[in-house]
Write a structure and sequence with these properties.
The protein is α/β, with parallel strands linked by helices and about 475 residues long. Helix content is about 35%, strand content about 25%. Among the domains are: about 5-155, Thiol Ester Dehydrase, Chain A; about 290-440, Isopropylmalate Dehydrogenase. It has 14 helices and 19 strands.
């Protein structure tokens, strides 16, 4: 008597195999799959096969099939998957395969992968399977045989779950964020002391993306030599010659005060040098709001961007400074399209402890939001990092909150912890970072001197969107 098996279990508690003595001619297993672009990209990532016929629709349009097709061995892998996962299952060893590829399988096709026991070899414990891949039309795309050494003993065990795969690349996520500024006017930006490759390259590329009109402020001859060395065209841009970095910062701030620049962008100087000119009480760019920094971190594993504040300006903020920090980041979240952002106020623990000042501040800040002193977002805290971003962690700890596990904004206790969180996400989790200083008369594009040009460009996107929102506010109805 033959049996049919269907591969429709995912991380079930237990799976078991079908050893040689249980198998009968005619036994079969199958799985139905609709082919997606992600399937092919994962296969390409695992094998290194980057044939554009299987990945690039534009290239494939000029091929014989006129559209993207599945890798031939992707189909073979799906058939072999049935052998190892279902029939015979655990302990199966593939010893031979002979497959013929009759028709292409396209992205969007729903296909059936099927294996059927054709013959058993008692002496060797080998089993020959008929293999086929069938299109919805009933036509066969692949036919052939697979031969395995079948397991001799019954095995039952918990199924191993494969890890989640990251499909989008850093470049794709970067480009998607840059695209959010399409159609917005470029921002006239005073670029302060762009005297190394990445800071000058970032400004020039941001201009080529249509994000900024740079005014390059620094030693003119040095900037021109850098541009020549790294093949950067700076001829279209105004250069303001200054002898040293402090003077570059002063001139940049002066241009912003006069309305000749709509934003500032940090170059290769130290943050303290630039910010001292910005916060000068007489000639700086202060407003009634406290200045604070926000990182926008696009972390693929989280599923949505995170705003982290303050990790660059306020070292040990007190309660009222934190209130300004939160209001600044909520206002930015609104500009980025989050109408009621979830704000997690972080500490080491999620309970109030009088020995940990950040937990007391968190409680007070939440009450300030209840009283309307902080507006535009939903606050909760103290929350530890895990239960701010993980629903499972929040559930395990019994936290019932509209913010826990779903945070859009992370408010850190101090600059040290915030900087560590942001850098870990960037360097270990592959986050796409962008940084901006809020609370001044103009947005300030503030990045680390170690940041690549892409980070500077992404930060320019924030400035463009802020400038665009501000412009819409002052336009007559």
């Amino acid at each position: 008597m033959s049996h049919s098996y269907s591969l429709d279990k995912f991380c079930s508690d237990l799976i078991e195999n079908h050893p040689f003595n249980e198998l009968a001619v005619g036994d079969n297993a199958s799985v139905v799959r609709t082919v997606t672009v992600d399937d092919l990209r994962l296969f390409a990532a695992a094998t290194g096969d980057t044939n554009p016929n299987m990945l690039d629709p534009e290239f494939a349009d000029s091929s014989i099939y006129r559209e993207v097709v599945a890798h031939g061995m992707w189909s073979g892998a799906m058939l072999v998957n049935l052998l190892g996962s279902e029939l015979p299952g655990l302990g199966t060893i593939l010893v031979d395969q002979n497959l013929r590829y009759l028709r292409p399988i396209m992205v969007g096709d729903t296909v059936t992968f099927k294996i059927t026991v054709e013959r058993k070899y008692e002496r060797t414990q080998h089993v020959l399977f008929d293999a086929e891949v069938i299109l919805e039309s009933g036509q066969r795309a692949v036919t052939g045989t697979l031969e395995v050494l079948a397991p001799s003993e019954k095995i039952s065990r918990k199924k191993l779950c494969v890890p989640k795969a990251t499909l989008s690349t850093y470049t794709e996520r970067f480009q998607a964020f840059v695209d959010t500024a399409k159609g917005m006017d470029p921002v006239i930006t005073a670029v302060i002391h762009p005297c190394d490759e990445e800071s000058l390259k970032g400004a020039v590329l941001a201009a080529e993306y249509g994000l900024i009109h740079p005014i390059l402020i620094g030693p003119a001859e040095r900037i021109r030599q850098l541009a020549q060395t790294f093949d950067l065209n700076i001829e279209p841009y105004r250069i303001v010659d200054t002898p040293y970095s402090q003077e570059s910062a002063r001139i940049g701030v002066e241009l912003a005060r006069k309305g000749e620049a709509q934003a500032l962008m940090k170059g290769s100087l130290h943050t303290d040098e630039m910010m001292s000119a910005v916060v000068d009480r007489t000639t700086g760019l202060r407003t009634a709001r406290r200045l604070s920094h926000v990182f926008r971190m696009d972390v693929h594993a989280y599923g949505k961007p995170l705003l982290i504040t303050d990790a660059a300006i306020n070292i040990y903020p007190d309660l009222m400074t934190k209130a300004d920090i939160i209001q600044n980041v909520i206002d930015l979240a609104h500009i980025l399209g989050l109408q009621d952002p979830r704000v997690a106020i972080l500490s080491a623990v999620e309970t109030i402890n009088p020995k940990i000042q950040s937990t007391l501040d968190a409680a007070a800040l939440c009450k300030m939001a209840d009283r309307g002193q902080i507006k535009g977002g939903t606050l909760d805290g103290p929350l530890a990092f895990d239960n701010a971003v993980s629903l499972d962690a929040a559930k395990t700890k019994g936290i019932k909150s509209p913010v826990a596990g779903l945070a859009d904004i992370l408010v850190v206790p101090d600059l040290e912890s915030g900087n560590m969180v942001a850098k870990q996400l960037e360097y270990l989790a592959g986050a796409v970072p962008a940084g901006i200083v809020l609370g001044a008369k103009v947005p300030i594009i503030l990045t680390s001197r170690a940041d690549h040009a892409e980070t500077r460009i992404a930060s320019c996107v924030l400035a463009v969107r802020i400038a665009d929102a501000n412009q819409k506010k002052i336009k007559p109805a």
